[in-house]
């Protein structure tokens, strides 16, 4: 799911590309998530179901948790997500709000029916991110994010995290190839690297590899995860993806179904 933790880790990786779409009120939406996620057509919802794999890497029984669903507004921006177990019980839900140009404004996440966290952003008079705040389940401030830098696609390239007492804790830096994230690095308050990640993609812009490195006082560990895509729908969006560990073993199969706008359906 597109959780608060994802926003904090990559800080607005989901804030999207500069394809402009008109709102009903006449204002232009500069940023939209459908573009940055490489979705084809006017997708209004995605539902993803996880499956366990058998010894040959083929999908077996459905994993008990969780079926994830993401919904998009008319401008192509993510607005809500839900995560349900195999029995249909809602485990987690996130609701996002947007600024007029499509940039991320806030997101509230609930777990098992209770608010777990809220994230809010601030922009300047030029519509650029300048800060963010993470609040806990009681509404108390946990962290402030400052020193944000932003690329032409509305993606945050750097930020610094401070605790509620304004003590500098850590910072993050992202590098992109156009709108595709290729590197992300986390450093502690002394400037030492805590973790780093690198990403690879195929010619369709689908992620094919993630390399995560964690640095501790005593060791450095790197884990590589790879993805293959076995099926796509008529629009070209993937409908089955297999996850492989660094030993070449299939660990998970995800299947997706897409809902398209009425306008898109009429084209078929």
What is the ordering of alpha helices and beta strands?
HEEHEEEEEEEEEEEEEEEEEH
Number of helices: 3
Largest sheet: 16 strands, antiparallel, barrel
Cα end-to-end separation? 29 Å
CATH topology: Porin
Runs in which pLDDT lies below 50 for 5 or more consecutive residues are 1-27
Strand proportion, as a percent range, falls in: over 45%
Mean pLDDT: 87
CATH class: Mainly Beta
Sum up the overall morphology in one term. Answer: globular
Q: Which strand order do you get reading across the main beta sheet?
A: 3-5-6-7-8-9-10-11-12-13-14-15-16-17-18-19
Instruction: Report the structural category.
Output: mainly beta
Total domain modules:
1
**Second CATH tier, the architecture:** Beta Barrel
Estimated radius of gyration: 19 Å
The percent of residues in helical segments reads under 10%
